[in-house]
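**Entry details**
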Amino acid sequence: MDLKLDDKIALVTGSSRGIGEGIARGLAREGAIVVVHGRSKTNTEEVAHDIVTKGGRAYTVFGDLTKDDEVQRLTDDAQTFGKPVQILINNAGGSGEAEDWTNTRPETWASGYDRNVLAAVRVTARMLPGMRAAKWGRIINISSMAALIAPAKRPDYSAAKAAMIAMTASLAKEVALDGITANTVSPGTIHSDRLDEGFRRVAAGQGLAFEAPWADIEKAVLSMFAQVPMGRVGTLEEVADAIAFLVSPRASYITGANLRLDGGMWPGL
């Protein structure tokens, strides 16, 4: 299926590693011009360079999304290719401190909200005028299954990610007549480098070799992390493919939705 993403400019925040990197690579494979963002210049440039060596098109921008001046600069830089950013993936964020209700602090909640929710708000506010002028745009906010199936630990993260789902629904209504769609994607347990390392550390504690085949690691410890009916974690490619469809012209009637990529974890409708 041709997703008709050739030459569309896509900014993926937090794409120097992890899920964001996977999304950037997936959009590049579909023909989009990808703007890779990160705070580490080295990591960000490595991702963009690898995309280019594989036949894609990629540029880089750098900056801390909790700082207004840096957001202004990087969003200006992202729109210097002759036309505005048409696709925005608000992926940057993260879970921060490993607190629970015995030691959680208000400042942790404020920091997590800034890093996840307000970072997306800052970037979105600067991208919307160009999308509205073009009468076309796609915005994806990356939430988490932690927003829907909240664990006892990191309550600040679950709350921030739930806020992203609500703000996306509001945004979708605001821009519906402007040719812009806004959707949330909530990944479950996804095979990133960070997850791989975490699983392997736990498996090593169970007696498996750290370098054991991934299938053995996954089988041994997945149930300790999540109850996934499919019996496996998701892949970065599966996340990227779902997002590539959502940002394509073929998904023009999907807006305000929250797509769960969880292998069947969600118990409700």
In short: Helices lie at 18-29, 41-53, 68-78, 106-134, 155-175, 193-205, 214-225, 236-246. The domain at 9-190+235-261 is CATH 3.40.50.720 (Rossmann fold).
